[in-house]
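JOB MANIFEST
job_type = single_chain_structure
chain_count = 1
residues = 622
[input]
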Amino acid sequence: MKNLFCLICLLLSVFVLADTNLSVSQQLDRLIEKSDFSSDEFFNHYQQLKEHYPEHPSLENKAKRAIIDSAIALNAHSTEQYPEVMRQITELIPHITDEDLVFSLKSQLFFMGSFDNDNIAYYQQVKKLIEQAPANTTSTSYGYLLLDAANIALRLMQDEEGWHYFSLAHQFATQIDDKDFWSSVENSRGLALSEHGHFQKALTAFKKALAYKKELGVNHAVVYANIAFNFFNLKQLDKTMEYASRALGQANVEQNRYVEVLIKTLLGRVAKSKGEYQQSVDWFSQSLTLAQEDDIRDYIFAGYADSIYPLLHLGQIDQAMMHLVQAKAIAEKEKLNVESYLYELEAVIKHHQQAYDQSMDLFFQAISATVKNYNLSSAKIAEQSRALMETQVQELENKRLRAQNEAKQDFLDEISEKNRWLSWLALIITFCLLILIVLIFYVRRIAKKHQLHATTDELTHIPNRRSALSRLKKKMFTAKKSAKPLVIGMLDIDYFKKINDQYGHLVGDTVLIEVAKVCQQCLVSPDFIGRLGGEEFLIVLSNVDESTALEKMERIRTVIEQLHFAAPELANLTVSASFGVTMLLDSDRQIEQLIHRADIALYYAKEHGRNQIQLFSATMLD
């Protein structure tokens, strides 16, 4: 029995200290699980953790830090940070034994190194990496791979498979219940709907993503940008400008150059649609400069190509031709599938140069390129879609189901073998938790009781002298800081000693209680009353001028004067009070100065007949 008691005490100590002494590894795990990498709270917590990081961290802790560093870089599109983080991850992977951790590292390495413009090759790489995920993984990297697979499948017109991956991502989001990942699911779903022309449904998804971010205290620039683009697609330019402004402001806060480039491109397109061609060229120029600085290649092409129409409207044909040459060079270098678009742009330029025959030929070439591209890509994609749907998708799902079933069976076998010991352990832990809960409630109750006794007058149940003066000091500091008025009044019950002598101390206590009660009824927070001692009370009025303060004091004096007591022997007992009132002055530095003036005014009231209110004046000092 003695040994059991010692065991309970030991376990109780472990539970009490567990949350206050988390290891660095556990704190890193919590940050990764939280995954709200764009919030200030997350970043500040991570910076504090790095300041106290061990000089020689373990390999696992290095890996966890690399995951967080890469996630932050990816979230902010900070491409200049990618090479160093990728080097660290590449060096760490061969030395890590934890399968989930290795998978997260490989996923982050893949996200940072994926610049392949071949959608089909990229899709195959994503699917291959998804197959490597450990069974029952809770790594958010796995969820983001599912979202990538869903988006790229829909882009390849493999709609059924794309929505299948979205379904898996949704199931995974439900499993881990991570608001940041829920936001990513809705944001990716919105992008997919937008690419398929369902702009209104896409807006609903983006707004859900934004709501999840706001629950985390985050205003995410990317989501604002996506909402702005969809309003633009719906021709709602006022809403486009509103959300573009929010996205641009948040991008500056997050230092997210990618979103800044994206939004300035959008603003250029808005200005172009309004016929504000010079403004449009200015926006495209800013976007192009930023895209070139940060090597955001798709928007370098857009910066040159989008500005051609506004330049033509401004009569800058040579400049437009230079932009077309640059756009062609980028399209060739990056292997962009924009041949038809480039023919169209060149045709428009030739038209402005009055080379109408060449312009017509180029338009026909644009149409031919569109038809050719459609026929080749649709046939190729349709065939790949059929093959993938028949084999790889089903194989992937079957593999995951088998792994899940095996893991469940292993878990059930383990429970069956250790059921008796686990039952005892659960009973002991439950008992310890109950003791801990009871102790916590008891300590809180005692602390609350002591706090109440220390700050409340035992007889009248209003703030005692110490509490009242402490509150007055805070009120005085606030009033000084905000330059708002503050008034105090000293209340003294008239002839209280006679009441005690004539009726007894019990009646005197009753008078004190009733006076305190009616005063409280006359006051509204933040005004308050406190008992300084004996029959003397302190009344504090905030943010009132002199005349309003005197009106409130007069109302209290009248109510006290009209007090009646139920006991027949007290029918003839009358109660009155004298008041000394003063206002906070700029010269006041200590509350003693206020109280001293109120005391002088109170003394003056008692000397001049009692049952009255006197406002302090300098003449009272004579």
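[summary]
The mean pLDDT is 79.
Strands lie at 486-493, 528-533, 536-542, 577-583, 613-615.
exit_status = 0
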